[in-house]
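Hi P.,

Sorry for the delay on this. The queue was packed all week, but I finally got your sequence through. Input first:
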Amino acid sequence: MIGSLMMRVSVVVLLAGMLAGIAMGIRQDFTLQPAHAHLNLVGGVLLFLFGLYYRLFPAAAADRLAKLQGWLHIIGGILFPAGIAMVVLDGPAFIALPIVGSLMVVAATALFALIVFRTSRV
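Then the structure:
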């Protein structure tokens, strides 16, 4: 379940990131390039790969940690680049947003590492 959710969210986020990139190219304004790159990589690609792992290893997805990891990454993977965009556009008053988002992503990735080591023993 969490793997499928992560994959569905990731393709929506990736599509949004790609459309944002096209809009930047049309306007020739690349101010939000850091947010665009993080949205595509963290919110799109990584989220999809994590979801794919859970689909390939259903026992890993059944763990309560997997649900926590998935939701942490979904929220952090959107908050992080959105926060970057707000800082770029509106200044450092919003610096807490990308910091919190990036810490959520790091925590989710650490949980994922734990899950992988627990569930992919050879």
